[in-house]
Write a structure and sequence with these properties.
The protein has 136 residues and is of the alpha+beta class. Helix content is 54%, strand content 25%. The protein has one domain (27-130). It is built from five helices and five strands, in the order H-E-E-E-E-H-E-H-H-H. Strands 4-3-2-1-5 form a five-stranded antiparallel β-sheet. The longest helix has 23 residues, at 5-27. The N and C termini lie far apart (86 Å).
Length: 136
């Protein structure tokens, strides 16, 4: 047995593992749909679609995933509002596909998207509707 056979065998295993990982990445593509950035263009949060799931990432980590486009978009909007309230100007950009899916999901529950966001945040939807009627 040669001195370099273990090194060659380990290199071959690493190469095979790398090829497996690349094949898996191509099999389940990740579609970016939203991003929240600060003024320095640092990515604060984002939403991608992977394997039929909406995945929310924050601070470089996966914060959660859901079948609900409305939920992840509402959570991302809440994060943007929190940053704004703390004095950090942010820019939120999201795809039409995410917006359309979120609005359709809210409509299927008999709500518009703003009502859905309020319900998710725990604010009483009836109070928001009353305020809307008073403003009209």
């Amino acid at each position: 047995m040669s001195i370099t056979s273990k090194a060659r065998r380990d290199a071959k295993r690493r190469q095979e593992k790398r090829q497996e990982n690349q094949a898996a990445a191509k099999a389940s593509p990740i579609e970016p749909h939203a991003e929240l950035r600060d003024q320095a263009r640092k990515l604060l949060a984002g939403v991608v679609r992977r394997d039929g799931q909406w995945v929310l990432g924050m601070d470089g980590r996966i914060a959660g995933e859901s079948d609900s486009a409305a939920r992840v978009l509402a959570l991302l909007m809440q994060a943007a509002e929190l940053h704004e309230r703390q004095g950090t100007p942010v820019r939120l950009v999201y795809s039409d596909a995410l917006k359309d899916a979120a609005h359709a999901e809210a409509r299927s529950e008999g709500l518009d998207f703003e009502q859905y966001k309020a319900r998710l945040a725990g604010a009483p939807v009836a109070a928001a509707a009353v305020e809307g009627d008073a403003a009209a």
